[in-house]
Amino acid sequence: MSSLHDHGIFKFPQAGVINSSVDRRWRNLGAEVRAHPACEIPDICSTQMEITLALQGTPTGFVHRRGDGRFQSTAVRSGTLWFCPIGVQEDSIRITEALPEILHLYLPEHQFATVGELTSQPVASGDIAYLADVADEFVRQICVRVLQEMRHETAAGDLLVEQLSMALTLHLLSRYSGNSLAVTSADVNGALSPARRNRVIDYVEENLEADLTVAELAEVACLSRYHFARSFKAALGQSPSEYVANRRLLLGQQLLEDPTLSLAEIAFRCRFSSQAAFGRAFRRHTGMSPGDYRRHRN
User: Structure pTM?
Assistant: First the structure.
């Protein structure tokens, strides 16, 4: 979904892209790792909620920035976090020396609208504070998990990222917007009932070769997204993304037994972005490459 990455293209024209989620089917979050030279960044008004994490710092590097009149000067160390909400006008950003690996996450406005519907409260990215050098290990861990998925694609990474983006959005609004958010729902806590569990499992099996989202699985279960993910894990011992990933890799094993199917076609049917990504995930899951597995089975 390239629109999630347009902000980074316009904001960082001099920074090289090392990794990007642009070729993934992620709907609610974009991610990229960039190498930034020492430079002045042009004025820009944020069109996405931006979370920035320094993967590698420098001993003497600083980022000086001013957004909506608020000036911040931050030493760039490994783990340094910045937030820039949608609508903030940054008229001055200066990077004092080259930064080799900086992770940028982008959350779109519609993600905040979804949280507003879930909490029955009006919320927006602009409610979040413009902050630098944020001490928040929860946000760092989500950033790291998104980075892992971007670099090492799994069979249900789109579902995983959907869950992570929801958790991140709720956390940012709860902790940094001044709003006291509470998820209100008539959903029953605890594991999915057998009837709901079976409906979801049947739906997954029928749609393994299609794009799946947590939102549509929650709809099948007649639960909110927030409660569905918890109830699903309580019932099956796996998150929705873990369950779908395992089922797709099993599908891949079954398809490999058909010698008429190419590895590229199997990768596509298992919803991977490339044959190479399928091969890496398959090896992690089975201990052998798809080609070796096929030869062994045939």
Answer: 0.87
Distance CA 124, CA 173 (A): 8
Rounded to 5 degrees, what are φ and ψ at 221? -80, -5
The structure tokens listed for 71 are 């000036």
Arithmetic mean of pLDDT, 104-133: 83
Tokens 């011992």 appear where? Answer: 237
| 185 belongs to a structural domain | no
Q: State the Cα–Cα distance between residues 144 and 179, nearest whole angstrom.
A: 26
71 and 154 housed in the same domain: yes
* Residue 82, both tokens: 């910045």
Domain limits at 79? 3-176
Six token digits for residue 259: 């010698």
CB-CB contact of 143 with 32 (8 Å): no
Residues 6-51 have pLDDT tens digits of 889 999 999 999 999 999 989 899 999 999 999 999 899 999 999 9
Identify the CA nearest to 173 among candidates 239, 86, 74, 63.
86
